[in-house]
Amino acid sequence: MLPLLPPGTTWLMEIAYLVCNNADIISARSRHLYERAPFIEATMPQTGSTGEPIVQFDYILRQPPPRVLKTHLGLKFFERSIRKSGTKVLIPIRNPKDTLVSMYHFYQLVPTLGVFTASWDQFFEHLFVKKRLVFGDYFDFYEAWGRYRTENPDQVLFVRYEDMKRDISEAIRTVTRFLGKSLTEEQVASIKEHTTFESMKKNDNVCPAPEAPRELFFRKGQVGEWVNYFSKSQAEYVDRLVKERLEPLGLHVYD
User: Fold this and answer.
1) For residue 89, which of 50, 144, 127 has the smallest C-alpha distance?
2) Local confidence band at 63 (pLDDT 50, 70, 90 cut-offs)
3) Most buried of the four, 77, 82, 140, 205, by CB within 10 Å?
4) ∠32-102-15 over CA atoms, to 5°?
5) Which residue among 72, 105, 126, 252 is the active-site one?
């Protein structure tokens, strides 16, 4: 089961782990998210008895099912294996304008991305429009998974960030049904409390970027901040791509 692509990934990963593990909040608080939901293409922060970094796939294969995994890689890396295995895929999806604003601040924050110091306009034109973002193009990513979902509706669930903000309890129930699990309302309430923005912001075991201050990684968690950044032409450019590439696949990112 693969929660994919920021923003909202960390939030959805924590929910997915708890749904798959009977709302075991104690376990979630005692182990880092990277241990509980390994990031496939990242280096494990832990080291083995020899002092060498743990090989990621060796670590993953040693984990008992159900395995919750994270990746930012696109469908082409997994299509053959997930088609064969029937793996369930959870994908957070958010208004692309807010997503880009979040990515802009992420680029400014993380040293491994160069601590981007240029303007928002330069970020938009030279990284987004020219498809140079490190995790790939937003529209290429979601269009590919949207087409796969059309063929395999039982395997892929898109979870809207805005819906999670509006009613997180219902989002938890939706994820629970999709994964074929069962939770009591008390367990749903426990997960809700554990995964509030303020709770996550205080939790040392969920920040996925150890080189970035937790308080900055969990920045605002707001909807609609894009209006403070986008020019009219930039907004129209993104709106056109949404209409041409996402809406025909039933991916409605705007309310």
Assistant:
1) 144
2) confident
3) 82
4) 35
5) 72
How many Cβ atoms from other residues are within 10 Å of residue 105's Cβ? 18
Exposure class string for 169-196: b at 16+ Cβ within 10 A, else e: eebbeebbebbebebeeebbebbbebbe
Q: Which domains does the chain have, with CATH numbers?
A: 9-249 (3.40.50.300)
Q: H or E element: which one contains 238?
A: helix 232-241
User: Could you write out the DSSP letters of every residue in 79-100?
Assistant: HHHHHHHT--EEEEE--HHHHH
Closest CA to 112 of 29, 39, 183, 170: 39
Q: Is 126 a catalytic residue?
A: no
Please list, in sequence order, all residues whose beta carbon lies within 8 angstroms of the beta carbon of residue 44, skipping any fewer than 6 positions away: 34, 38, 53, 54, 55, 56, 59
Give the amino acid at 10: T
Give the pLDDT confidence score for residue 83 in this predicted structure.
94
DSSP 159: E
Residue 216 has pLDDT above 80, yes or no: no
Is residue 139 within a helix (H) or strand (E), and if so which, with residue range?
Answer: helix 138-151
> Which residues are 70's β-sheet partners?
39
Task: Read off the tokens for 117.
Answer: 């110091």
On whether the CB atoms of residues 254 and 97 are closer than 8 A, the answer is no
Residue in the block written with tokens 């990277």? 34
